[in-house]
Amino acid sequence: RLGHGRVRCAASHQQWTVRNTQFSSFTFLATLPSIDSPPRIMPKTAREPSVAEVKFAIEPSAKRTKDKIDTPGKDGGEKHPLKSIQRGNSVLDLCVYKGDFDHAKLDPSQTGLLKSLEYRINFSHREKKISPWHDIPYRASPDTFHMMCEIPKWTRAKFEIATKEPGNPIKQDTKKGVLREYKHGDMLFNYGFMPQTWEDPCHVSEDTGFKGDDDPLDMVEIGCRQMRCGQVCEVKVLGVLAMIDDDETDWKVFCIRTDDPLAPQINDVEDIDKELPGLINTMREWFREYKVAEGKPLNKFALGEKCMDREYTEKVIEETHGFWKAAEARLRSHE
Questions:
Q1: Can you give the C-alpha Rg of the chain in angstroms?
Q2: DSSP SS3 for 239
Q3: How far apart are CA 255 and CA 252, in angstroms?
Q4: Mean pLDDT, the chain, as a whole number?
Q5: Contact 216, 193 (CB under 8 A)
Q6: What's the confidence (pLDDT) of residue 149?
Q7: Which one of 15, 16, 130, 242 counts the least CB within 10 Å of its CB?
């Protein structure tokens, strides 16, 4: 309770004199220092933990174990990881840009309750069920690409494409039956994936020395607008970081929406530093540190931790698209 000239902290019941100030009644949730004291800089972690953090605090900090990736056996049985994925009616024949995909015609449908284990976002295009991973073309035009947002900027719920579920809906990731959120804090960017790409876990990159992580390419959209979970947009790719996560190559592709106000000025990695100085370093450190809050070590980066340019990035995209295309062709040959 606050009266004339005095402040009472509800948490500690300590009092401070505030000079020449008349207050009404309200409650402080944090300590208010004396006006004569030097300003205090609160530590980065000085905030109320989220529900996910409280639940995760009791879990052991064990290293993540990846699902074993089956490969064709000597008996000739096909056990490729894409084999179990049921397809919808594709909007194109096979991963060649045809201009017949319109992201405005993409229709997401939600099932289950938000913040529940059953929650899913499924997709259809022109009234046909599709897989957002397999049926959306990776190229939006000869010079641009498609990205689907999984985690909007300024949020922390860990939504992701379900690569092993029929139709590949978006769901919130779980750990030991608990919905996951980023304990490190909110995303500083729109985070998602590029359709029709695949980081092959059987391929060891010559540039990084590590195998792929068995997922589509991760996309980091640096524009000013917050995207929606499940939204598809056309982007220009700008650069890429070669992150090493659990001894796997996990490329992080920097991009910007073609309709972003800064898009005309940003066309390559050096333009990011000109228009948004400090952004690359901030993003690199976010990716380096975000798992420490879960009791895991810092992530590492190959290629001297450099954010490579657009030309190199497009080579990574074409390589991972090639891995997807080969896997897709093997799958279709067995249909």
A1: 24
A2: strand
A3: 10
A4: 78
A5: yes
A6: 98
A7: 15
